[in-house]
Amino acid sequence: DAGVTQSPTHLIKTRGQQVTLRCSPKSGHDTVSWYQQALGQGPQFIFQYYEEEERQRGNFPDRFSGHQFPNYSSELNVNALLLGDSALYLCASSLAHYGYTFGSGTRLTVV
Amino acid sequence: GQQLNQSPQSMFIQEGEDVSMNCTSSSIFNTWLWYKQDPGEGPVLLIALYKAGELTSNGRLTAQFGTTRKDSFLNISASIPSDVGIYFCAGIGGMLTFGGGTRLMVKP
């Protein structure tokens, strides 16, 4: 049973560019949440998608947007990248609020 | 917003020692989760707690959901080298909110 898969694993972008990160949820899960984890800190909630709609959002600017597809997979888009956006981006899937399972993350470096 | 305060921030362990860490919040949570994160990996769920006062074990790990629903603790008995890593508490009160983590390291 495949768990949560994220791609790419690593990414280097230049300030001002845009980036798209992808997440495939665990089989049977219908909800996808995205987190940003800076070095040495706990994951910070970005937003959550259910039934292809953004259901909840953390304290992140509109430069962060997302999408959920009919097969429950999801994308995280970040526009106008800043140096401070460098972090590990984690995707978690769940069935409603049960069974939160995390992927290994995408390490984004903005130079 | 919701904040989880986790302590200690870091601790050294010697093989065989028991370890305790806790998490407190000013907000009530309906569910408490404890995760472990190894370098380069995502957090892995260790224990989930769904009811106030609940005490749950998973091997050498024991966690409790505080009766006020604002705190939780995790104990590790007879620690082994592979216990090294970062432990996070997380609460569900609408969204999943994480604490800052407790880093477990091996005594030199």
Helical residue percent of chain A? under 10%
Give start-end ranges of low-pLDDT stretches of chain A: none
Beta content of chain A: over 45%
**Oligomeric status of the shown chains?**
heterodimer
Determine the number of helices of chain B (DSSP H or I, runs of at least 4 residues).
0
Reading the helices and strands of chain A in chain order gives EEEEEEEEEEE
Summed up:
Chain A is mostly beta strands. Chain A has no helices and 11 strands.
Features:
heterodimer; A: 111 residues; mainly beta; seven-stranded mixed beta sheet; four-stranded antiparallel beta sheet; 55% strand; globular; B: 108 residues; six-stranded mixed beta sheet; five-stranded antiparallel beta sheet
Question: What's the structural blueprint in terms of helices and strands?
Answer:
The complex is a heterodimer of chains A (111) and B (108).
Chain A: E1 5-7, E2 10-13, E3 19-24, E4 31-37, E5 44-50, E6 53-57, E7 64-68, E8 74-78, E9 87-95, E10 98-102, E11 106-110
Chain B: E1 4-7, E2 10-13, E3 19-25, E4 31-37, E5 44-49, E6 55-58, E7 61-65, E8 71-76, E9 85-92, E10 96-98, E11 102-106
Parallel strand pairs in B: 2-11
Antiparallel strand pairs in B: 1-3, 3-8, 4-5, 4-9, 6-7, 7-8, 9-10, 9-11
Overview of the molecule:
The complex is a heterodimer of chains A (111) and B (108). With 111 residues, chain A is mostly beta strands. In chain A, 0% of the residues lie in helices and 55% in strands. Chain A is built from no helices and 11 strands. Chain A has strands at residues 5-7, 10-13, 19-24, 31-37, 44-50, 53-57, 64-68, 74-78, 87-95, 98-102, 106-110. In chain A, a hairpin with a 6-residue loop joins strand 4 and strand 5. The mean pLDDT of chain A is 95. Chain B is 0% helix and 55% strand. Chain B is built from no helices and 11 strands. Chain B is globular. Chain B starts with a strand and ends with a strand. Chain A binds chain B through residues 4, 33, 35, 41-45, 48, 56, 58-59, 90, 92, 97, 100-105, and chain B through 1, 4, 6, 31, 33, 35, 40-45, 88, 90, 92, 94-101.
